[in-house]
């Protein structure tokens, strides 16, 4: 093996190389697990330990990111008054979207099978609201701001792993993106270098939880081999 010289620290990396049958068995099991995940709008108020949120963020932190800058911050809220304030502010923006004409007719038609509306009552029910903020820049110890790269891509991947971690623990969530979301920075006292990215209501599904009867895109539409 060739000897490489590095100017920065490197460590050896040799993940398990599994036989193809074993690897396929594992990924089929992972697919079955992921296929059972759904976005939920009907939650139970049953408590969820803070440790669950901590482990979900640990999983999110394993995501690849531009220059390994990890440009995300997860802010977890359990206080009922703050959760209610988030609901009130989110519904103001959502009413402007649904009732004020900010959502064009084509978009409204696309949302129709989900039967969503401006009511975000589940934000008062869930034991946790976690808001992911994206960091365009990150403050450094010397007071300067470090530029981050591929922020949207990096934060999106981290949020995907966060969702999967919640699902693995038997918890449910929803990717809520009220637009605009500047009210979250104000309510949660976030600095100017962060911008709200996604709101995650987190809890157990309600006993009478229902979800739209949807089908995911088949492999024939999602994958194309070239060459």
Automatic annotation (TrEMBL):
Residues 35-204 form the Nitroreductase domain. The keyword Protease does not apply. It comes from the Bacteria. Gene3D superfamilies: NADH Oxidase (3.40.109.10). Keywords: Flavoprotein, FMN, Oxidoreductase. This is Nitroreductase family protein.
């Amino acid at each position: 093996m060739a000897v490489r010289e590095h100017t920065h620290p490197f460590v050896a990396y040799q993940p398990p190389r599994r036989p193809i049958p074993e690897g396929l068995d594992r990924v089929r099991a992972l697919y079955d697990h992921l296929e059972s995940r759904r976005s939920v709008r009907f939650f139970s108020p049953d408590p969820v330990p803070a440790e669950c949120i901590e482990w979900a963020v640990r999983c999110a932190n394993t995501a690849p990111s531009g220059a390994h800058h990890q440009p995300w911050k997860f802010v977890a809220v359990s206080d009922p008054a703050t959760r209610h304030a988030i609901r009130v502010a989110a519904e103001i923006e959502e009413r402007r979207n649904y009732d004020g004409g900010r959502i064009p007719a084509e978009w409204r038609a696309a949302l129709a099978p989900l039967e969503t509306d401006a009511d975000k009552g589940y934000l008062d029910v869930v034991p946790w609201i976690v808001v992911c903020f994206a960091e365009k820049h990150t403050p450094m110890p010397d007071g300067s701001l470090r530029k981050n790269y591929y922020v949207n891509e990096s934060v999106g991947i981290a949020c995907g792993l966060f969702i999967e971690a919640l699902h693995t623990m038997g918890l449910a969530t929803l990717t809520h993106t009220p637009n605009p979301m500047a009210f979250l920075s104000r309510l949660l006292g976030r600095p100017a270098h962060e911008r709200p990215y996604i709101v995650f209501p987190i809890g157990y599904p309600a006993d009478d939880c229902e979800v739209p009867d949807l089908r995911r895109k088949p492999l024939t539409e999602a994958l194309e081999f070239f060459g």
